[in-house]
Amino acid sequence: MLSHKNLVSNVMASRSIIKLRRTDKLLSILPMAHTYECTLGFINSIAQGSSSWYLDKPPVASVLLPALKKIRPSIMLSVPLVIEKVYRASVVPSLQKISLYKHNFLKPLFHRIAGKKLYKTFGGRLRFFGVGGSALAPDVEAFLADAHFPYAIGYGLTETSPLIAGSAPFKTKLRSTGPALKGVELRISEPRPDNGEGEIQARGPNIMLGYYKDNDKTAETFTDDGWFKTGDLGIFDQKGRLFIKGRLKTMILGAAGENIYPEEIEALINKSSVVAESLVLGEGAGLTALVQLKEEVLSDLKAKAKDSVEDFERSIEDLLEFVRKEANSGLAAFSRITKMVRHKDAFEKTPTQKIKRFLYTATGLRKTSGIKP
Question: Which of 68, 307, 338, 350 is deepest in the core (most CB within 10 A)?
């Protein structure tokens, strides 16, 4: 339950990150029913006199690109999946065609050039491209930073109206969500002595009243001294910037007590040119990665296998093993993937394009028992 005070306080506090102008145009590509878009897009633009533009279809490339060209927005709010798809589908292939790109010292230069083209694709007027809802892939964020793209990272939850931490474009620290939002207090509960990690807890005028007609769940979500439990794990650096490590519920405990964050492993797997999406689970012995391969990759494998189903399946197994070894080469020993399973269909997602983890098992089968549609 979010009150008028909750929502308006969050709108007011967000001005410490970005102040909208009457001349700003916001292009909305996220569901209005989600607090992220409703508060920071819809209410925020009304409160500050800006204009908002809405798509009447899902923001696929064939719809989004013409809209960007026509509207030329100055403000956009997005989830990582949108910019990650643009980067992997358009930017990476163009960069890999450049022979000099293999030299690491030249990559920032080529990223800057590619960034200018990307900026024009988005209409050439962007001054704020907000990213929230889930973690942005490390390689994509590194590119955006090199490219001088006006991206900004924010962190929050529906229960917090939603924003509790963030930073403005060109003030972001790689992999950090930034400091606490003005008027919001953040703390790390019971930090581990070895690395300082613990649950992120928040307090402020933007924190919800509670869950509707669910006093027990409300009580469980707040500490005795009134702090909201986010369910996320994080740490602060010396400058008070927050770094999200993962969800408390999805964290996997290693054999020797190590904290394994599946989101970090998935980001590494998704860097592969043959992978569409992945989901890492820790059921049973070792880690299992469910992997959805790109359609064009599967089409190519089918063409090479001709009419042989056995050759096609063997090619998929070989490819998954290659991806597994490639990912494991960049992982610590305790977080390496034991098995990869091909996931044939697209993963079911939330409105902010996060995979619904609770629906899947390490065998690749979808859970159905007790799940309401």
Answer: 68
3-state secondary structure of 281: strand
Residue position matching structure tokens 């292009």: 27
3-state secondary structure of 293: strand
- 96: buried, middle or exposed (CB in 10 Å: 19+, 13-18, 0-12)? exposed
Architecture of domain 252-359: 2-Layer Sandwich (3.30)
8 A C-beta contact, residue 357 and residue 266: no
Q: Which of 350, 335, 344 is nearest to 366 (CA)?
A: 344
pTM: 0.88
**Residue 234 corresponds to which tokens in the numbers above?**
């994080």
Superfamily name and number for 185-246? Luciferase; Domain 3 (2.30.38.10)
Q: pLDDT per residue over 271-289, tens digit each? A: 999 999 999 999 777 899 9
